[in-house]
Automatic annotation (TrEMBL):
<keyword id="KW-0547">Nucleotide-binding</keyword>
<feature type="short sequence motif" description="'KMSKS' region">
    <location>
        <begin position="194"/>
        <end position="198"/>
    </location>
</feature>
<keyword id="KW-0030">Aminoacyl-tRNA synthetase</keyword>
<dbReference type="GO" id="GO:0005524">
    <property type="term" value="F:ATP binding"/>
</dbReference>
<feature type="binding site">
    <location>
        <begin position="10"/>
        <end position="12"/>
    </location>
    <ligand>
        <name>ATP</name>
    </ligand>
</feature>
<dbReference type="InterPro" id="IPR014729">
    <property type="entry name" value="Rossmann-like_a/b/a_fold"/>
</dbReference>
<comment type="function">
    <text>Catalyzes the attachment of tryptophan to tRNA(Trp).</text>
</comment>
<feature type="binding site">
    <location>
        <begin position="194"/>
        <end position="198"/>
    </location>
    <ligand>
        <name>ATP</name>
    </ligand>
</feature>
<feature type="binding site">
    <location>
        <begin position="149"/>
        <end position="151"/>
    </location>
    <ligand>
        <name>ATP</name>
    </ligand>
</feature>
<comment type="similarity">
    <text>Belongs to the class-I aminoacyl-tRNA synthetase family.</text>
</comment>
<dbReference type="Pfam" id="PF00579">
    <property type="entry name" value="tRNA-synt_1b"/>
</dbReference>
<feature type="binding site">
    <location>
        <begin position="18"/>
        <end position="19"/>
    </location>
    <ligand>
        <name>ATP</name>
    </ligand>
</feature>
<comment type="subunit">
    <text>Homodimer.</text>
</comment>
<keyword id="KW-0648">Protein biosynthesis</keyword>
<dbReference type="GO" id="GO:0004830">
    <property type="term" value="F:tryptophan-tRNA ligase activity"/>
</dbReference>
<keyword id="KW-0436">Ligase</keyword>
<dbReference type="InterPro" id="IPR002306">
    <property type="entry name" value="Trp-tRNA-ligase"/>
</dbReference>
Amino acid sequence: MKKRVLSGIQPTGKLHLGNLIGAIENWVKLQDKYDCYFFIADLHALTTAYDDKDHLKEYINGVAVDLLAAGLDPKKCVIFKQSDLSEHSELHLMLSMVTPVSWLERVPTYKSKIEEMSGKDLGSYGFLGYPVLQAADILMYKADYVPVGQDQLPHIELTREICRRFNNFFGNVFPEPKDLLTEFPTLPGTDGRKMSKSYNNTIALSDPPEEIRKKISIMVTDPARVKKDDPGHPEVCSIYYFYKIFGPDRADQVAQECQAGSRGCVACKKELAEILVKYLTPIHKQREQLSQDPQKVESILQDGAKRAREIAGKTLLHAKQAMGLV
């Protein structure tokens, strides 16, 4: 039997290049090697966007379309919406009974997320306890591996700690999951910071070509380079980082010309924009087709939920029996 992989993505806005490089392209590769379960984490979205109900449905549909357009195949993996399975919420509640509050308060992303989203009121139990919900998502499917970036490793370790604590109390119910690190953990945004919807510095997968060109044109480059013939420092330039990922065959030449002062930032940005437009063209074509058939997308999510429930129901029953609830 194939090893099982589980991962999810939040519908808190349009998916962007950081999501594509950091997660989705990796998922597309994994679906050919593992028994994969990928879900739209709409319950997780409520931990920070509980007051944005007007856009949630739109974002959920957009994420589903993006995932399918980027190459996830429902014949090779299970794609579903988290809230379609009440088992996730129920197991979350059960795990929360044995999870010390101090464990949640020490998670690094707890404080960093509060700072990143300083305009939001994140003093809720849901936000503090979202790593427990994440643990429930993973343990529900008894996943062998969870593909994550470097910044998510503390969450996987916390999941293992919750797993061990539950098993110590109630018997060997859950296996401990392992992490699968992504090749590119972060991607810079248009302002030089980490590409994030919270910073409003993203290039969305659904952005049309003209929008991509516009966003690339305002990207931060080498701050020490004032004139075109000034020697550049590509190692500190976001544009060069993009070349290494999306145009690796051009990266060395671009770096040499930048360092020699024979290539200006404007020319560099224009070429990169066309590379990105070409890179995203297949996704744009698939998005257009899927957007014209919303019933097909909904049908894929419903079928995925049905397939996921076959495992989730058995796991929840096992956990309940272990706790003496059944």
